[in-house]
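Backbone-to-sequence.
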């Protein structure tokens, strides 16, 4: 893809996320979208199971069910040094401080790497997480990401968020921040 093509694709992704956000703000509903233009290098059943995982996670967030949210994460979760217990605390704090938490996920690429117990699914996602503040009553952004790669691994018969593969960089590149949530 040319530089111009990448810029056009990025603009389309940003506009789609913006439209989803505007459509969802009035009811704080989750949006999980797999556009027709997505690069899908896995079978339909895998795509459906990943989307179902995100939907279960969103329902758990809506119900404020911390244990169900945490079931989305692999027991081997590791994202830039953050482990599953760290993410549990983040979600607990979010539930304490915010209501009507919702997110948008635009899933644009699915790639399977490895086989058997070493299988990892790379899912490229653009989106954001927002909520209504218990303090101000206003909707506020909590997190946003552009073409973040979610690494998922099979565990207990389902795909679970694994974090990142390999060694984490000691320092993130300028202008980037970790995206530990989903």
């Amino acid at each position: 893809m040319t530089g111009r093509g990448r810029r056009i694709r990025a603009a389309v992704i940003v506009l789609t996320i913006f439209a989803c956000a505007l459509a969802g703000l009035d009811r704080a509903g989750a949006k999980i979208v797999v556009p027709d233009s997505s690069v899908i290098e896995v079978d339909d059943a895998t795509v459906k199971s990943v989307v179902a995982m995100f939907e279960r996670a969103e329902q758990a967030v809506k119900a404020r069910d911390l244990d169900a949210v945490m079931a989305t994460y692999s027991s081997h979760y590791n994202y830039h040094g953050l482990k599953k217990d760290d993410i549990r605390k983040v979600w607990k704090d979010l539930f304490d401080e915010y209501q009507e938490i919702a997110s948008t996920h635009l899933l644009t690429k699915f790639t399977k790497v490895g086989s058997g117990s070493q299988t990892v699914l790379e899912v490229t996602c653009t989106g954001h997480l927002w909520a209504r503040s218990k303090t101000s009553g206003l909707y506020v952004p909590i997190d946003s990401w552009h073409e973040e790669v979610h690494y998922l691994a099979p565990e207990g018969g389902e795909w679970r968020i694994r974090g990142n593969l390999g060694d984490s960089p000691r320092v993130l590149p300028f202008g980037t921040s970790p995206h530990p949530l989903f």
